[in-house]
Design a protein that fits this description.
350 residues, alpha/beta, 31% helix
Amino acid sequence: MTIYKDFPFKLRTCVWEITLACCFRCAYCGSCGGKARENELTLLECEGVAAQLAEMGCRRVSMIGGEVFMRKDWASIVEALTSRGVKCCIITNGFKMTPEIIETLKRVRIESVAVSVDGPEEVHDAFRQKGSFKRAFETITALTKAGIPVSVISALRADNAPRLPEFYETLKNYPVFAWQIQACSPMGNAAGNSVDVVFDAGEVLKFVRKTAKTAPFMMGVADNIGYYTEEEGEVRGIPGVKYTGCGAGLNGIGIDSVGNVRGCESMYDERFNEGNLRERRLVDIWTDPDAFSYNRRFDESMLTGSCSGCEYGSVCAGGCRSYNYFTGGKLYENPLCARAKALKKCLQRC
């Protein structure tokens, strides 16, 4: 793209919440999904956003809700992206899937669909609704039979993290191409319901490293789990890939259903709004010299707590900004860092 060719930061990925409407009201939903906002972007406005994303060279959009399929014109928004060469995947709870939706997904050339499944049936249904686990796997089966690639996303909390091995025994029997494991962040409903999100990240990394070697699908942890233990380079889903810091505002953005732009859609707080697409064009928000300053102006001296002085601080940059902020209120200090926990345990033994 030439519209900002000399600008040092290039937009490559976007997570786009097209509606807050959802058929669930999950106890840990970070965005408090359920009811659509009154002033959500119109189809015409969404098509304009899609054109701007393509113009700026965005390569891939992950479309989320709420629940994407609760918005009647979702397919038109997807097609506005794919017709311009932008790859698009959808993250869903799988509950609303129908044969008609599957045919539409094929028509609009969806790249893949990710289905959120939290763990064994009683764990998954307890935080969503009875029957949702069964429905999610019916959706996975139907999509794969139709030739649509399917992955599974699991958000870890205190209750389900220890049961990953058990859940794997179920999941390995389904034709998914990937399993992404991420940390549930204490924001939105999770904060309001005091959901216990604390788990042992080190044990999760060991599980992923061991299991991925023989799993019938790709496995990896998301950017909010890590960092730089001996498993790094083996647990990001692609062999050899290591975590290189939060990409919010550096190569990725989040857009919510009313047009607010953030560095990451998991940074679900007005503090991180950089502008609104009803007021400014995306390229103007992106190239604003004061935008996304928490990442664009980062240097090691900003690290605090156990991240300060870490030998990987210049690379890791303190881990996931969103998780840091919602767990401890500090952007540059990661309370889940598996390396820091491992070092602490080592010192205690010594």
